Amino acid sequence: MKLVFASNNKNKIREIQILVPNDIQILSLEEIGCVEEIPETADTIEENAILKANYVTQKYGYDCFADDSGLEVDALNGEPGVFSARYAGEPKNDDNNMDKLLSNLKDKINKKANFKTVICLNYKGNQQLFTGIINGKIIEEKIGNNGFGNDPIFVADGYLKTFAELSIEEKASISHRGIAVKKLIDFLK
C-alpha cells in the first residue's frame, strides 16, 4: 500500500516511518512533485489537518494523510495550540516560539500542558480523523538536542526527560503523533 504523507517536514516523516509497518510505503510531498507550501489557515488543529489532506487529494489525486499538531498550555488558555509553529510570528523559528512561551509562563504556577496531533486520512473516497494527545508539563529551560518544535521544554507525564532528550524511537512510541499514527495503522489493517 502507498500513502502520501502531506508533509515535507523531514523530522515528522522520520517519526512516522518508524511507526508504520513495512507493507505501507509512505511518500512525502516532494516525492509526488508537490513543492509548494500548503496553506494552514484554519482556526483549529483538526481543520488544518483536513485542509492539508484535501489539498493533496484534490490537486494530486492521491490517497493521503496529513497531520497538524499543537502544544496546548493550560495556564495560557490552550495557547499556542494551532499557532504552535508560528507562535512568535513569521518566519517560523522554534527557539523564538519557545522563548515567547517561557516568557508568557514566567509568572504562572500551573505548567500543565499537552501535545495534540490530529491526522486526517483521505482513503478510497472516505475521510477519517485520528487524534493523539499526551499530557505533561512545561519546564523552565530548554533541555535536549533531539526532536523539534517545543520538544526541549516538554516533559510527558511519567517521564523525567524532555521529548528532545529522548531518542526518535522513544519519542515516536509515546508521543501524540505516535498515538495518532497507531490509530491510523489499526484503521488501515
TrEMBL record:
Pfam families: Ham1p_like
Keywords of the record: Hydrolase, Magnesium, Metal-binding, Nucleotide metabolism, Nucleotide-binding
Organism lineage string: Bacteria, Pseudomonadati, Bacteroidota, Flavobacteriia, Flavobacteriales
Cofactor: record remark: Binds 1 Mg(2+) ion per subunit.
InterPro entries: dITP/XTP_pyrophosphatase (IPR020922), ITPase-like_fam (IPR029001), RdgB/HAM1 (IPR002637)
Function recorded in the entry: Pyrophosphatase that catalyzes the hydrolysis of nucleoside triphosphates to their monophosphate derivatives, with a high preference for the non-canonical purine nucleotides XTP (xanthosine triphosphate), dITP (deoxyinosine triphosphate) and ITP. Seems to function as a house-cleaning enzyme that removes non-canonical purine nucleotides from the nucleotide pool, thus preventing their incorporation into DNA/RNA and avoiding chromosomal lesions.
EC numbers: 3.6.1.66
Name of the protein in its database record: dITP/XTP pyrophosphatase
Residues that, per the record, bind substrate: 7-12, 69, 148-151, 171, 176-177
Catalytically driven reaction(s): dITP + H2O = dIMP + diphosphate + H(+); ITP + H2O = IMP + diphosphate + H(+); XTP + H2O = XMP + diphosphate + H(+)
Family statement drawn from the similarity comment of this UniProt entry: Belongs to the HAM1 NTPase family.
Cofactor(s) listed in the protein's UniProt record: Mg(2+)
Nucleotide-binding recorded as keyword: yes
Chain positions recorded as Mg(2+) binding sites: 68
The protein's assembly and partners: Homodimer.
PANTHER family: INOSINE TRIPHOSPHATE PYROPHOSPHATASE, INOSINE TRIPHOSPHATE PYROPHOSPHATASE/HAM1 PROTEIN
Active site: 68
